[in-house]
Sequence to fold (446 residues):
Amino acid sequence: MRKRFHILTFGCQMNANDSAWLARALTDRGHVPSSREEADVHILNTCSVRAKPEDKVYTELGRISLLAQKSPERKILACVGGCVAQQCGERLFARSRELRLLFGTDGLAAAPEAIDLLLSDPQRKITLLDFNETFAEQGHKLKAAATGPAALVSIMRGCDNFCAYCIVPLVRGRQKSRGSEDILAECRALIAGGAREITLLGQNVNSFGQDSLGDGSSFSTLLYRVAELPGLARLRFMTSHPKDMAPALVQAFAQIPLLAPRLHLPLQSGSDRVLRAMGRGYTRAEYIALVCALRQARPDIHISTDIIVGFPGENEQDFEDTLDAMQEADFCASFSFVYSDRPGTKAATMPDKIPPALALERLSRLQVWQNHNSARILEAMRGQSAHVLLEGPSLKNPASSWSGREAHDFAVNLYIPPAHGATTGDMLKVRITGSGKPTLKGELAE
Ligand code: 5AD
Ligand code: SF4
Fold:
């Protein structure tokens, strides 16, 4: 039964990748992506790492019910996946008549088949919320791996770290690595489908392979193997935990030319006291030493980070330590968040919660510094040459205006004369001519 489907994604990059996989899998089964208004199958893929997406899910389920009431003949099916499904469980079914599938992050691989079952049996409801013992294999089973020039590949799920503030191990379960061969098969399929750049994704890629499902391969071994795949032009990975960043991985930045000179390395706080309370397993000095080693291995590397402000007990000195550390690390970008309690975490029970107004004031001080530093780093790129992976013609002027990304992952807009015959997926040598905010401008280099 061919149906139109629409996926709405709330949350992180892992989630966006899960949604992209689900879209490919549903397309493989003959369904077609459509707008929200026209869809018969609505999938809400959620993440609760930073915010409370439950409310958004309820609003969206309400909207879907309205659509269903307007055209009862369409037999609309709603599905909720990801963290919210995992956290709220079957009580979500009471929220909407159309809602008949719940899948957790481990249930994703079985979701396409479940959707087909539900379409053929309107009385049925399915719950896929168990944490699997095995990593649900996904990629290589797909027929079509049609993709854009930059593709994402999940290499593991879950996390064993239990940082005091973090809900990930509670909703995504313990760490489970995929087998290297399956990862390589998915990468090959994506490259055959047009990908030139691959980002390997995991909550903590540095400990890849070091769990009960690991196949003995370390993350750096995997990285070298992916880098050797014919047709690949650029490789990235995220996210790294500073405490698990092996020297071999630092060296990979010196030895693998197509590994992009950009690393996301969450610091969270620059105060040793707060880092200890968070259970992060490194000190500020250790973090900075790691940054220095990375810059030695790859002098042009750009490092970005995640910071939490207003962690319970954070005082002015702790916050200033964070600002100092950020300056020392010279971050090109930071994703900064005000601490919020997540249910079931250790930090939720800690005393000395920071008043929201104070936390917001710290957040804006931090962001002022970061905006300034990011603008300085962008400006310093003017006049430099760069390799830009073309992601597509711009919407405004598709004949000659293109957008792409350079190695540090900055977006670049550039004019290319139509006679050049450029196509999406080309890697072009470009001279950076200006820095808008937040994109760079460039022109073809001779
Ligand atoms: N409060 C605020 N930020 C959080 N993050 C994770 N949990 C919380 C929380 N409870 C942030 C961290 C992490 C990023 C993905 O989200 O900075 O690196
Ligand atoms: Fe959460 Fe810490 Fe695991 Fe990252 S390393 S997912 S912050 S528990």
